[in-house]
Amino acid sequence: MFQKVLLIQLLLLHSATQSQPETSARCHEDAQMMCPVPNIESLDFFSITWHKLSETKKRLAVIKWKDNVTTLFKNMNRSLEQRFGEKYSLLMPRVTPEDQGTYECEITANLGGRNQNFLVQLTVQECSIHPETTTMTPESNVTQSIPLYSEEDVPAWCSGVGYVAVGLTKIALSLISVWVIEAVGKRSSR
């Protein structure tokens, strides 16, 4: 009896410590998340559904395949629709950091089979905030990326001049306000 309990505890520990597969993508590139099942094409299943897990672990259905029909759910705020890729993978075009998170591949078995759920982590790199332009050099036919905006810091003297100008403007507006209030007060006392 003790050996059976120990074996069950070890199996539970093993399944709890298995790391989930991770998919990484750059911002605005397509991401393909594979359902980590060996030989998924040879499985006899009723349906396969991809969910996104919210921060509260609520399952939001993304896409489902059943009886050769694909159903797309509108639970995600995406301008481009996700679809099934090869081997029932989840293919998401032009991902952004908002798409990042944990996804679940749920395989619903036919009667008498065993359902399976697998988690996949999607990591999306931050989007670049500096637009770039591409130029071609005629001699070597090499493409170069040149930032449209300078990444240098603003010189300290420019910041100082800006603060002084704002300060002087505030003082001038305050003096004008005081003079207007005094003028209105003198008129009303007459």
Low-confidence parts: 147-151
| Helical run tally | 2
- Give the % helix: 25-40%
What strand order characterises the main sheet?
Answer: 1-9-8-3-4-5
CATH topology term of the domain at 20-124: Immunoglobulin-like
- The CATH H-level superfamily of the domain at 20-124 is Immunoglobulins
Biggest sheet descriptor: 6 strands, mixed
**Distance, first to last CA:** 104 Å
Which H/E pattern describes the elements?
HEEEEEEEEEEEH
Mean pLDDT: 79
State the name of the first-level CATH class of the domain at 20-124. Mainly Beta
Structural class: alpha+beta
From the 3D coordinates, which CATH architecture of the domain at 20-124 would you assign? Sandwich
Strand tally, please?
A: 11
Q: What does this molecule look like?
A:
26% of the residues lie in helices and 32% in strands. By secondary structure, the chain is an alpha+beta fold. It has a domain at 20-124: Immunoglobulin-like, CATH 2.60.40.10. The N and C termini lie far apart (104 Å).
Short description, anyone?
With 190 residues, this protein is α+β, with helices and mostly antiparallel strands. Helices cover 26% and strands 32% of the residues.
Question: Secondary-structure blueprint of this entry?
Answer:
Elements: H1 2-17, E1 22-25, E2 31-33, E3 45-53, E4 59-66, E5 69-72, E6 83-84, E7 90-92, E8 101-109, E9 116-124, E10 132-136, E11 143-147, H2 156-189
Parallel strand pairs: 1-9
Antiparallel strand pairs: 2-7, 3-4, 3-8, 4-5, 6-7, 8-9, 10-11
